[in-house]
Target: PBPe domain-containing protein
Amino acid sequence: MPYEKASYDWIEHVEEGSDCNKHNRQEAVNETPVRRVRNLVHLIILKDGIASDVIASSLKNSSHAFSTVSSIEAAYEALMKNEQMVLLASSIESSYIGVMSCSLETIPYNALYEVILTFPYSKSWIFGSQIDFYLSIVSKSGVLTDAASVYFMTGRCYHPNYKIPMPSVLDLADNASTYIFLLIGIVTSFILMGLEVLVRRILGEREAKDLTPLVQGRHYTAKIVAIKRNGVSVTIGNRPEHFFIPNNQLHTDPLKVYNALDMGLTEGAEIEVTYFGDENDSNTPLFCRYFANE
Model:
């Protein structure tokens, strides 16, 4: 059964303009920052809860009786058994209890919040060790300030009398939605492809600038990466490009016809070559095999 706000009649001493003014109330009957509740079965507080001593002392001058519960679980059971049961606790504890059910109603208690705005924390509290660990990370003061306002937590799940708007979700079964997702995928793919091409181009230009230019007449060590019928392809140093050396430039007698296999060359083998510049007609680098003893 939905929780009915009409079962409560709040009478409170608060400043004008606070959030509590939205509740129907009569003229304040005392100066104690306590809400007097009509038709309530019981008011409970947590034993060893956050600022439980401050909450209890603020209730001493109240004509309404209250009792303590020993644990969070006991408070939750009491709230769920009777929808007129009310727990007075900090928002830290009330939020913890709130996750046990769909959404127990919490009402900001601004008057008492001003009383416990700043107070020393105690390890005897239910969440004392967790708060101690939290403060050791985010604070060096050793004092829990702005602990969040004290809340009334009422039993059962509160259902507002207005309709909560539901978020709109694209239905994948709808053709229009399918085309939208397809278009998004295509556009994203083109963007990623463009970025990849751009990165490769930038890296290629950077590598080209970092390479030392070939010097005409200098000897280089070349590694054979492929053997073809009319010559071999080699790499020189850390250069990314492949250079082709024809068969007649792999031995000392260019008039004889030998191929790389006849000369005992294999893929992965290293040979010494001499760079003779680029050919005038094709700007192709010209290399000849170098023999140190000849």
Remarks:
- The longest helix spans residues 175-210.
- The radius of gyration is 42 Å.
- Confidence is low (pLDDT under 50) at residues 1-40, 109-122, 137-153, 156-162.
- Helices lie at 52-59, 72-81, 91-98, 110-115, 128-138, 175-210.
